[in-house]
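Researcher: Let's do a round of design. I'm pasting the structure tokens now; please hold your answer until I've finished.
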């Protein structure tokens, strides 16, 4: 005859295994998140360093270029040249701002972690 009683530890062993599997899954997701967080921090620091270099060099270039152009037109049209350069710099600033906003809106930070969590939820939903 078959014995219908659960083995030693039966339901508690199953619950313990289920809890252990859930914790292992959570641990894997947290580790993935930590790795992605480190990568994002490195990308951010790298981008900030390059951005600072670009800004510093651009300011120096614009200042010296403006100085040279104003000196060249000192006698004939210095006010007109200053206005034209100011408008050109304003246009460049607006285009750069727009480009920055576009780039920031396409950010995909932590996409690996979010993707794995979505897969986990889909598996749990389909498994029920």
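Researcher: That's everything. Go ahead.
Model: Designed sequence:
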């Amino acid at each position: 005859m078959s014995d219908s009683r659960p083995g030693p530890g039966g339901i508690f062993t199953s619950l313990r295994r289920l809890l252990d599997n859930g914790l292992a899954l959570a641990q894997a997701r947290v580790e993935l998140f930590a790795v992605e967080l480190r990568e994002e921090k490195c990308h951010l620091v790298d981008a900030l360093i390059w951005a600072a270099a670009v800004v510093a060099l651009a300011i120096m270039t614009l200042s010296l270029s403006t100085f040279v152009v104003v000196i060249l037109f000192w006698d004939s049209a210095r006010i007109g040249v200053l206005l034209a350069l100011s408008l050109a710099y304003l246009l460049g600033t607006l285009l750069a701002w727009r480009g920055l906003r576009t780039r920031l809106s396409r950010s995909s930070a932590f996409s690996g972690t979010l993707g794995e969590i979505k897969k986990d939820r889909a598996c749990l939903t389909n498994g029920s």
